Amino acid sequence: MANINEIAKLAGVSVTTVSRVLNNHKYVSDEKRSAVQKVIAEMDYTPNKNAVDLIRRETRMIGVIIPYNNNQAFDQLLHGVLNVSIENDYSVTVLPTKYNKDKELEYLAMLKNKLLDGIIITSRSNEWESIIPFTNYGPVVCCEYTEHPEIGCSYIDRYASYLEAFQYLKEKGHSRVAITRGRGMESISTRQTLDAYKDTFGELPSELHISDCYSVEDGYQAGKQLLNLDARPTAIYANGDEVAGGIYMYAQSIHLKVPHDIAIMGQENQPIGVGLGLSSVDHQLIKVGEQAFDLIMSKLKHKIEIPYQIIHRSSI
């Protein structure tokens, strides 16, 4: 296989010029660039990526720590990252954890080993004290608010969004409101949901609280459990539009009318919610992901709040 010295000799240029062409350096004349590219094509030369990365001192690759890859909310965050990574000629490596703390730290160590230029954490399982040391090796950005000065964040005010959603339901005459959620109390969003509920309606009755809901199927089962209570709720706040869609489907199966018999509100303004006319709290997660990538690119540690929206449709 040809090497960079042979390319330089055949093109009649210096090794430095070949290196500049390989790294898309702008200070190379069109004539010399053309000569080098012609020889590269003739020799079918492929540069050693690790060597190029060492020259650049960057990999042009970032990692996105994501708990699950079949969750609409995390998919939206990743979609936002990919939107701007393509525009900036960066590659993205998806790092699924299933909330395994050791796996998360293993991924963060890729910064120390110079395998990534930065890492975006969409949702974490470790405490900040375990994560912050890795910021010595590259930028770490998260998709939740943190006061730590070493961590940049792109986030939404989830508590405010939940509070506004519950107050809206209360204004519509609902006082017996059920909720579904995903993770347990270790989840910040779960705690914020429960705090907003308590501040609006008081203590949440245990029978109106269903956990481990992520999909349409989970929503259908949650609907079966909630809508067959002796004193069923008059409204349900679901932790995703897919879950809300499953609840809607079960309600239809037992001939309940939405919103006359049961009001339903979801999250994240997903296609199923649009199709079924479900009201939704849109946390604009695509924008959160886009902003997170911008923070990685700029190496800034700013705290950027993305505004949420309440989408009003016919389910309430």
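The record above closes out task 2.4. Task 2.5 opens with a second protein, given below.
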Amino acid sequence: MASTIPLDTKTLKVSPVHPPKITSVKPLAESTGLSSLPSIYTFTHNLHDEPISDDPEESIPIIDVSLLVSGSPEEQSPVIHQLNKACSDWGCFMVINHGVPESLTKAMIEVFQEFCNLPEEEKQEFHGNHVMDPIRCSTGFNPSVDKVNLWRDHLKFYTYPEFHSPNKPVGFSEIALELSKRNREVAIVILKAISKSLGLEESYIEKASNFELGLQILAANFYPVCLEPERAIGIPPHSDHGLLTLLVDNGISGLQIQHKGKWINVNLLPNALFAHIGDHLEILSNGKYKGVLHQALANDKATRISVAMPHGPSLDTVIRPAPEFVDNESHPPKYIEITYKEYVKLLLSGKICSKFRLDFEQSKAVYAS
């Protein structure tokens, strides 16, 4: 297994979490004696009753990334415009013709399924001691602050600037490494285009975020069939920290994004990536582009598997609004200036929700407390 990434947990002041031996959701879901959902998995807010958009015009934008790589300036210009509209109106889009082999994404989903099928005692070694471990297998976000167990099994590991991965099952590390490399190549192309869509120089986001040392994570989610899906939740509404997340799944519905006050089902096109804006791109644009709220519902029909790859700044980088989007009168900065590491620390502390949309004064008060 790779050596531990040099995360300064002492500076982060993250208290180690030593939960009792965790049982995955998978064996519970497969239990023949389960007649009702255990209360610890009951999510009180019934997301299934919230309004869902059925407007055919409300379709998630599609971006052909191949034109950003090999297209002429005339061909790239409308794509940059489409990207601007997608990021400002939606905070997300589907990416097609991205060059990541479909066979590779399917192999990742299959090998993660094999990981989930491992005996509990074999998975136990990857459960980790605290939420900042570079490899961590769990069901929730943070056992010290979680109020309810999520209906999912979750494996998270850091893939850049240093690569970490479980060493089982056979072939897992090799597939994860190749997918991570190919995924990062796509993210770089998109971030360059997003810089241009904001009217900034092409390399602005990469330079401002120190992306060369930026943190990349592979987060795989296993949502087993749930006998009472209306009482459970896969992942509650949240936005991702970082700049950009790219996601694939096994074709089973469950992911939703919020748009104009309604939830919209995300049904990915074949071999498409789902891209959504993270909090730190929202900060960099001073709110011009919003980190999209999304959630994952439980279902009683089929197991859903997703593999998400968030791409963030380097841990020691302060992400602040670009000067072009700030003035002292009509456009003051909307976010406090803290490092990516400090931002994650606030999220883990439970002092703020997973959506960092506090105004400037509230943010200062929270950070100072």
